[in-house]
Amino acid sequence: MSVLTVEGGMLCGGLDVSIGADPQAARLAAAVKVAELAREFHSTDVEVSWDPPQEPWSWTAQVTLAADNPRLAPGTEG
Predict the structure, then answer these.
(1) Is 47 exposed, middle or buried (0-12, 13-18, 19+ CB in 10 A)?
(2) How does the average pLDDT of the chain come out, rounded?
């Protein structure tokens, strides 16, 4: 998987799924990995929303702060 940041950075890594895994299982594994990274490095929860695939071998998702994220509460810094 590759993650491109808004700032232009890039993170690459593998997913713990078999090569013949169902695409939905791979997307789920990628979303879990991104959520884990957000919690570990930013102490925040995120939601991953998949865009319709343009190519069968490539998927794009949008990552946003979770709606119930405590960092979004009034009076807190984000």
Answers:
(1) middle
(2) 84
Closest to 29 measured CA to CA, from 51, 5, 6, 48: 48
Alpha carbon 48 to chain centroid, angstroms: 5
| Residue 77 scores a pLDDT above 60 | no
Return d(Cα 29, Cα 16) in angstroms, integer. 7
Q: Record the pTM.
A: 0.74
Contact residues for 73 (Cβ-Cβ < 8 A; gap 6+) = none
pLDDT at 63 over 70: yes
C-alpha pair distances (Å), 33 with each of 24, 66, 73, 75:
14, 15, 25, 29
List residues bridging with 50 in a β-sheet.
61
